[in-house]
Structure to design on (733 residues):
């Protein structure tokens, strides 16, 4: 059993293969956190200390016992009102505006399998993942506030084989008087000791998820997004690791948010050196009223722990995301190699150009051609047409179905680009329904990329756009959709009659409703998420779109850094990565086709270029790249991923994909620096089977695994910038 309960002492212990998580209900009915770490047995109550601490309040029931205070005790669900002055997860205001709460233990129940959250994505375990989902269980602990008539149910899902614990909260108004949620987060971890670093991931459009490591000192570190999306600026995952932790060593904890809207992550070190790490919805722009009988769910947080460094921590999350968050036909399948029209021709295409691109793609060995922005309405630039989801047959020289049939006859699949959540003021949709756009009455709106946000918190808006997109999908054999979102949300206002503090949360529910319908009604459709590249790269989107365009920046040198940061919390199978033309559109940098290919193979692999502009030598090299990708695709997307260097600090970027059965490894290296009289860099491999030998498939050289893992492979020293290398090693029987 993954979950063990001492019913007499109300001790709750969650076990996974390598970890233990423990909490208990104390004599006053408070739910206290006791332990999360390496798997163990016993009661960890001894870790809690009690003493009189000045200016730390005491519960009324404690009477003269000043050694008991919620201001320093580790908790499972801290809230404002019990004397805890640290950051909390829950703030509730009653009808008079008084913010107070007093949650005490009520009951528990145990469920087989993993819980689901109505309208929200969540980690699942079903018949499609029996091997990794076996013995999954859910623990639900109920807390109550008898004055507010508030019921809070804490959900804990356990995937024992993956060292994964998930958390979410169900909040219900069981009384007759309304109250308002002003903060409602999903999970925290309280640590009574430890010298930790926080690793977070910051960035901007076209340079997302830069890994940042900082020593945790006194005060609060906060990351988050109030943009209505998980954002380019910060990613909704956080790591807390031993100060001396490495990829292979040290205690490491992670939290990842299964949600595609705004978020807030906080790490606080308090006056007594306790550390609290918490993650959930942002309290900015949140004021969610709950009337009698109303229920609110917080989105899910995925937690993991490794006692052996960051590599294993990432691998836990990768497997969870790939097998227990991603769903459907494409979850375990190798994705088709595609060519996207955007960087090849932008808006300037017609039927002849698309057929030309398709013929060029076919000649290279590409499997799918994607028609990006510009196929609908009056959309010949980014000033008009968004929202008018009907085919521009004049531009395409006939119906979309005719074009797709012709491309299918070439032996290619076909996909399109959409941006369903947006509208231009210069569009038929906006002229007919201006109230469907989010704008503040009486004020000019803030524009982004010349577009406004459609109010997806309103069902009639979601229904109308879904119906329009469905007609397009039904009109032709479309096998892929790129779902884009090219601005942040501002001017939050809905004409729906909702409280405005509900809008952003309900907006995300509307987005998920749309995507769920697409997944249900078009089960063979491959959907790639996108938000100006990586502005909505989160586990919530992976539930609906098994791959996400990693960044609008396709420069190979920048991409190794972007994909490095992404790898901490997301599997390679989810990372949309393409080879583009040079000089690169975003940086002007010129990098060899070989290096561009090696970097793009650290993802789903495709192309963003015009085949007509390639030389014969380049075409032949691309054909070889595609053959290599097909040969290694399963290892790349299903193997165990290791970061072999830190490209933010090291002169090389190096990574490894390793087969679960230890039979083979694919090692990739990009040289980021070249100097006179250059020193030799060695790439130390990981995960190989000890005391065995591995043969280089290309050269036939045989290497002892122990030496490869202790010293490594020397990287050749050659003249020229951004040289790249790849070794495919096969275990010698």
């Amino acid at each position: 059993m993954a979950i063990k309960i001492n019913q007499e002492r109300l001790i709750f212990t969650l076990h996974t293969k390598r970890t233990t998580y423990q909490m208990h209900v104390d004599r006053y009915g408070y739910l206290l956190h006791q332990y999360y770490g390496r798997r163990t047995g016993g009661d960890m109550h001894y870790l809690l200390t009690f003493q009189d601490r000045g200016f730390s309040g005491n519960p009324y029931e404690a009477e003269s016992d000043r050694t008991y205070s919620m201001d320093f005790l580790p908790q499972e669900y801290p809230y404002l009102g019990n004397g805890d002055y640290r950051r909390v997860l829950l703030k509730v205001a009653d009808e008079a505006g008084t913010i107070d709460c007093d949650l005490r233990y009520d009951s528990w129940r145990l469920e087989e399998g993993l819980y689901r959250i109505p309208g929200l994505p969540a980690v699942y375990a079903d018949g499609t993942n029996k091997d990794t989902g076996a013995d999954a269980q859910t623990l639900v602990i109920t807390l109550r506030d008898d004055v507010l008539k508030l019921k809070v149910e804490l959900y804990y899902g356990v995937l024992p084989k993956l060292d994964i614990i998930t958390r979410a909260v169900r909040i219900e108004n069981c009384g007759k008087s309304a109250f308002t949620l002003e903060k409602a987060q999903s999970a925290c971890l309280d640590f009574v000791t430890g010298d930790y670093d926080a690793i977070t991931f910051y960035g901007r459009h076209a340079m997302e998820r830069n890994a940042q490591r900082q020593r945790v000192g006194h005060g609060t570190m906060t990351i988050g997004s109030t943009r209505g999306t998980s954002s380019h600026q910060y990613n909704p995952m956080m790591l807390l690791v031993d100060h001396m932790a490495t990829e292979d060593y040290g205690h490491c904890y992670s939290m990842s948010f299964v949600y595609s809207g705004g978020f807030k992550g906080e790490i606080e070190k308090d006056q007594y050196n306790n550390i609290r790490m918490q993650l959930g919805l942002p309290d900015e722009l949140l004021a969610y009223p709950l009337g009698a009988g109303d229920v609110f769910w917080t989105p899910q947080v995925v937690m993991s722990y490794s006692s052996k460094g960051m590599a294993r921590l990432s691998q836990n999350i990768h497997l969870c995301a790939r097998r227990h968050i991603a769903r459907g036909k494409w979850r375990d399948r190798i994705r088709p190699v595609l060519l996207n029209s955007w960087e090849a021709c932008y808006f300037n295409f017609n039927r002849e150009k698309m057929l030309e691109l398709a013929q060029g793609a076919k000649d290279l060995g590409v499997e799918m051609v994607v028609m990006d922005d510009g196929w609908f309405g009056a959309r010949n630039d980014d000033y008009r047409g968004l929202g008018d989801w009907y085919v521009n047959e004049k531009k395409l020289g006939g119906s979309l179905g005719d074009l797709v049939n012709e491309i299918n006859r070439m032996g290619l699949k076909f996909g399109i680009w959409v941006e369903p959540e947006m509208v231009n003021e210069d569009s038929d949709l906006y002229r007919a329904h201006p109230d469907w756009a989010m704008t503040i009455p009486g004020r000019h709106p803030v524009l982004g990329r010349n577009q406004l946000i459609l109010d997806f918190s309103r069902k009639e808006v979601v229904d109308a756009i879904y119906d329009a997109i469905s007609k397009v999908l039904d009109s032709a054999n479309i096998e892929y959709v790129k779902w884009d979102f090219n601005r942040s949300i501002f001017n939050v206002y809905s004409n729906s009659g909702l409280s405005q503090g509900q809008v952003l949360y309900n907006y995300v529910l509307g987005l998920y409703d749309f995507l769920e319908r697409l997944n249900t009604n078009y089960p063979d459709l491959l959907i790639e998420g996108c938000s100006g590249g990586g502005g909505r790269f989160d586990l919530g989107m992976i539930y609906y779109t098994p791959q996400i365009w990693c960044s609008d920046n396709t420069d190979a040198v920048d991409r190794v850094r972007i994909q490095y940061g992404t790898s901490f919390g997301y599997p390679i199978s989810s990372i949309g990565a393409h080879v583009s033309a040079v000089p690169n559109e975003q940086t002007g940098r010129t990098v060899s086709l070989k290096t561009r290919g090696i970097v793009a193979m650290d993802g789903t692999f495709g192309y963003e270029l015009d085949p007509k502009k390639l030389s014969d030598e380049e075409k032949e090299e691309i054909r070889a790249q595609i053959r290599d990708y097909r040969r290694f695709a399963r290892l790349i997307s299903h193997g165990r991923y290791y970061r072999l260097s830190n490209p933010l600090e090291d002169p090389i970027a190096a990574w490894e994909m390793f087969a679960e059965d230890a039979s083979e490894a694919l090692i990739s290296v990009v040289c980021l620096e070249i100097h006179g009289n250059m020193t030799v860099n060695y790439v130390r491999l990981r995960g190989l089977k000890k005391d065995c030998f591995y043969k280089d498939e290309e050269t036939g050289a045989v290497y002892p695994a122990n030496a490869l893992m202790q010293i490594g492979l020397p990287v050749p020293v050659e003249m020229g910038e951004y040289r790249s290398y790849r070794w495919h090693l096969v275990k010698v029987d």
